[in-house]
Amino acid sequence: MVLTIRPSSPSVQAQPSADITHDRGDRFHDECGIFGIFGHEDASAHTALGLHALQHRGQEAAGIVACDGTQFHSERRIGLVGDTFSDLSVIARLKGQAAIGHNRYATTGDTVLRNVQPLFAEFAFGGFAVAHNGNLTNALTLRKELVDRGAIFQSTTDTEVIIHLMATSAHKPMVDRIIDALQQSEGAFSLVALADQQLIGVRDPHGVRPLVLGTLDSAYVFASETCALDIIGATFVRDVEPGELVVIDASGVHSMRPFTDRPRKFCVFEYIYFSRPDSVVEGLGVYETRKRIGIELAREYPVDADMVIPVPDSGTPAAMGFAEQSKIPFELGIVRNHYVGRTFIEPGDQIRHLGVKLKHNANRSLVAGKRVILVDDSIVRGTTSVKIVEMMRSAGAAEVHMRIASPPTTHSCFYGVDTPDREKLLAANNDIEAMRDYIGVDSLSFVSHDGLYRAMGHGKRDAENPQYCDACFTGDYPVALTDEDGGASARQLSLLAERA
Question: Is 32 a catalytic residue?
Fold first, then answer.
């Protein structure tokens, strides 16, 4: 097999301008979205469309690898999907009836092309490309062992560890090599991989990260979320099960379960924030679930006020649920500017504090003299919440109350979500009253753990065996943190000041 790679133009490879539209450290950020399709003449075009639908899962870089049966073709660029894959000439170069794609989120460190996925390697069995959503919690440990044995890494991603484990596997068949590599890996992962005449999708045994299977005519599709199926007119078939490896080839779909059974631990934050509202995740509609969280929040922590205001956009469904339950009017007291993005040219450091105002502005005529309830999905550092509250006060709000559609974030995530170190999390170091005082609101409440679980159809949270991964709220990590426990600087595999 031959791989053809088109280099990015200098303008595309240039470092993106600073994003001052929000405090990047005051939100959770998912690491990526993945997509794969097999058996369609427009495979690369559909992959680009799928990545468009998954753009919310990663905005730093995008890549597609396609295979035409004799060659692999790759296009990987820095920037949004539309920056590269709206160009028909780029799509035309990605020949073949099978393709996989990847969106990467900008975290910290350098933005470099070598970290952009899908990654590609030549094996004895032929070419192989892989795209990964998640994080391997023993990647540093495995990487050190591989380097000691002579491996030479080209990127700083944990995904490349999987490729080297496959290369050193004693097994011969490609699928057996994948299984061997993943059986040595710990953490959370959903993968799509492309080999000659085969498309593979796999989830870790706990099923922390999402992956769905769909069909489009006679073709098969993998995607992180159902919204990516919708954009190409594909039909949802089912979720790939935790611990399941699915191989698609000319003869159809082949499922196997090569991993030891583990308790299901799907990431609860997919419902709160990460997934698009129009997606169906593990059988639950995201929009409806967020509304139910808002209903639970209103039941648990009612407050007398004149209006319920969402913090756009992720707080909107929960705010609608809160308003519905409380019988308090839902109003757009904060207007979001959707046209401020990464290309904004920052005149100087003196206007950094205006970042929130560039993205959000108070609807002064509406909130002046009113008692308002702000509903948001989470509080991480709290800095953005402070600025939003100050904005409401400046607009003349008589009272400002805040209700949060998740429990307090007290712990960092190590399973593929970019979060600050624990000492920088507001709730890890402060009780509710101290947080209320810091943010500057008249009252502050978070949905309870049981309220969150009730919104997702459970009577309450099972303290002995939680139904989801909720480690960011509880510190109950379902998968071993080998690198972290070993003292390595392993938050999302931070190596050489670059990020996966």
Answer: yes
